Amino acid sequence: MIRENIRNVAIIAHVDHGKTTLVDGLLKQSGVFRENQDVAERVMDSNDIERERGITILSKNTAVMYNDIKINIIDTPGHADFGGEVERVLKMVDGVILVVDAFEGPMPQTRFVLQKALQLDLSVIVCVNKIDRADARPEAVEEEVLELLMDLDANDKQLDCPFVYASARDGVASYTPDEPGTDMKPLFETIIKSIPAPEGDENRGLQMLISTIDYNEYTGRIGVGKIDNGSIKVNQEALIVNHHDPSRKEKVKITKLYEYDGLSKVDVSTATVGS
Fold first, then answer.
1. What is the pLDDT of residues 220-273, one digit of tens each?
2. CATH T-level fold of 207-272
3. Which of 33, 34, 242, 247 is deepest in the core (most CB within 10 A)?
4. Do 184 and 173 meet the contact criterion of CB atoms below 8 Å apart?
């Protein structure tokens, strides 16, 4: 089955190139926040250390609705120190948005994370951000990104990736660098068109890779991941298999199921492929 009403995408970038601000803009325009609601700057960076250092360490999950399609967005670390987590969360998605500063262009860390995405055969959207900078050089940056993709042995489909130009701070995007944006619609539309819908067999046994662990003081540890095959219900029994040592198995009972809605988790009774 193909879940046409879902897209799973990760945002990757060098530190301070604006990916968290971009996610904030998508959240605002998808109606997660009211027009006049006070939105804490860098809403995705909720961890205390992250707020203090102004960087994203733990990947955050959120979901926005656009034209009845649910877009699950993962905001990934932009620092080399957290490369292991980047690789794990990329296995939850079908494509990535590479955010690149319109002046600085692709940086060393961009290379590392992009290579991981290409090796996993993920679709790529390039978002040239901070297009409103006086020293922006979008055409040159576009060439630099394409050169980087070739250096990293991107396939023909990945080399033919779409470019979107944005000012995340102003909440606008456009299809060309000269065209003034009015909202984030060009980025939303590009995600729907360019990122494949997740697919799998809901009639097979449950297969879900736990990519990250969340914690809730009431529920305890929460495994976060994407269902590749099968489906799952509350109170169902499941088998946890150790990824590094498949002989280690543990039978568990599913007491709670959550999906992301905006920045919140919502209770659901069942989940299937792509969720």
1. 888 888 999 999 999 999 888 887 788 888 898 988 898 888 777 888 988 998
2. Elongation Factor Tu (Ef-tu); domain 3 (2.40.30)
3. 33
4. yes
